[in-house]
Write a structure and sequence with these properties.
Shape: elongated
Strand order of the largest sheet: 6-5-2-7-1-8
Number of helices: 20
Largest sheet: 6 strands, parallel
Length: 495
């Protein structure tokens, strides 16, 4: 049974109340920058067991009559097809996904901002046309020379002033994005500049889940955030502004501390006095007050750092990540005194590989804590074998029972080879299809398939880098997957 360390109900009540206080405190309009993911926040769900991935959007629905959503995407991310690693889709595709989900939740999406825009970026121009075809307003924000150091230039008609003004109609403007580095804060500050020139009293606040300001700098949950953003060079730090103003220690991160002088200068220029004395003051983060079991969250965060380390190692092996990212997470592990072997499924999978003369192996830890493994065979890849064994265990079926006959698998193997494949073993999707066909005449096969939802949240490790097909299947199943940074063959493409 998974242990719970976070009270979601308490969190949503506290968070909603805090946001309403900020709206009432500024006058006409509040720009609320949503850091992290508005929904599908699986990182938060992993390090704060009990936090639901859609907590934020459920909370936002309670304010839907006041709220208007603006989505920001960096034009450079469109051009380089930047991926959301957790979903395996590009940022521009995720913007469309976000729009559809917001609309289905009866939340109003007012517009999309293309930050760092240039007419030369043909991918961004094409994406704008796609958005306009579905009835979305699109605005351009541009690169500002000297950002964020040259404050007089930034807070001028040649800085924020050259950005297009986003027309909004509601008092709460939620500014979100498909991922970090999209330009959410710059969009909010630009709007403040334009609003005050128009006589509109507006304010800014930040809803950032991590780092958690009222946990210590070395708390595992905050360290896990550093591991999650190692590719961005983000670093947690004591907020020097907050310490100076209140003689109180709070945790923030480098980008917010770096940009705070800009925000402070902007408020002073527009309002005569800044309402915030520190980056921490800007936040409306009540997460720390909803932790119900600190030990559970600490252990969950440690496991997240280990997972991030494996992910970075595989990224380096694939040429998708920098060595620096892996090294930084490795240092965080040393700081927490955790090791690869502290992830139970790692040792379980590696022991199977040792017993099978180095053949790839896999392991999964089921909700009841039982460890199930899978080995490579002539018929199934290790991940397919493990998945089938796990479904048997969850269904209460003896491990010796043959759910899928070899005679059903072999024709699929022959077809794969005929179509140019080089790996005849069934991938996870192919195994599940074979199991589904078998279920039409086997109650046990049908019973096994019915167990699939129980795999969500389980821990999985493989001793080999998986094919994109298997990785995608495990994402769909909602398991927490890690792999050793080793290819099963010397082939250049793992399919």
């Amino acid at each position: 049974m998974k242990k719970i360390g976070f009270d979601s109900k308490k969190y949503m009540e506290l968070q909603s109340q805090k946001i309403l206080e900020r709206i009432n405190g500024f006058g006409d309009k509040l720009y609320l920058e949503f850091g992290g993911k508005l929904f599908d926040d699986f990182h938060a769900a992993r390090v704060l067991p009990g936090f639901a991935p859609d907590n934020k959007i459920v909370m936002l629905q309670t304010l839907k009559d006041k709220a208007e959503i603006v989505i920001v995407i960096n034009s450079h991310d469109i051009e380089r097809n930047k991926l959301r690693a957790d979903l395996g889709i590009t940022y521009d595709t995720d913007v469309l996904r976000l729009i559809e989900i917001f609309r289905n939740k009866d939340l109003y999406v007012g517009s999309v901002v293309l930050s760092q825009f240039s007419e030369d970026n043909l991918s961004a121009v094409a994406f704008q046309k796609k958005l306009e075809k579905i009835g979305l307003k699109v605005y351009h924000h541009y690169h500002i020379a000297g950002y964020p150091a040259n404050i007089p230039h930034i807070v001028s008609d040649e800085g924020y002033g050259k950005n297009e003004y986003i027309e909004t109609t509601r008092p709460l403007i939620v500014v979100t994005a498909p991922g970090p580095g999209s330009g959410k804060m710059a969009t909010c500050l630009s709007q403040l500049y334009h609003d005050y020139k128009r006589g509109i009293k507006a304010g800014y606040a930040k809803y950032e889940t991590f780092p958690i300001w009222n946990l210590s700098l070395n708390h595992p949950v905050n360290i896990a955030y550093e591991a999650a953003t190692a590719d961005l060079n983000d670093m947690n730090m004591i907020d020097p502004w907050h310490l100076s103003a209140y003689n109180e220690v709070s945790v923030n991160y480098n980008r917010d501390v770096e940009i705070f002088p800009v925000l402070h200068a902007l408020f002073e220029k527009l309002m005569g006095k800044s309402p915030y004395a520190s980056p921490t003051d800007m936040g409306v983060n009540m997460v720390g007050y909803a932790i119900s079991d600190n030990e559970v969250c600490e252990e969950a965060a440690k496991q997240e750092v280990i997972r991030r380390y494996f992910k970075a190692k595989v990224g380096v092996r694939k040429g998708l990540s920098e060595q620096r990212e892996m090294d930084e997470i490795g240092l965080l592990m040393e700081r927490m005194n955790v090791h690869e072997s502290d992830r139970a499924v790692v040792e379980a999978a590696r022991k199977v590989q040792e017993r099978t003369n180095g053949a790839p192996a896999a392991a999964i830890e089921l909700p009841n804590g039982k460890m199930i493994t899978g080995k490579t065979s002539d018929l199934l890849g290790c991940s397919s074998a493990m998945l089938l064994n796990a479904l048997k265990e969850l269904a209460g079926i003896d491990s010796d029972v043959e759910l899928i006959s070899p005679s059903a698998i072999q024709p699929i193997q022959r077809l794969k080879l005929q179509l140019g494949g080089v790996n005849p073993r069934l991938h996870t999707d192919e195994m599940l299809i074979a199991l589904s066909i078998t279920a039409s005449r086997s109650k046990l096969a049908g019973l096994s398939l019915a167990q699939l939802p129980k795999l969500a949240g389980c821990e999985v490790h493989t001793t080999t880098i998986l094919s994109p097909v298997d990785e995608k299947m495990f994402r769909k199943l909602g398991v927490n997957l890690t792999s050793d940074a080793v290819y099963s063959t010397k082939k250049l493409v793992n399919i």
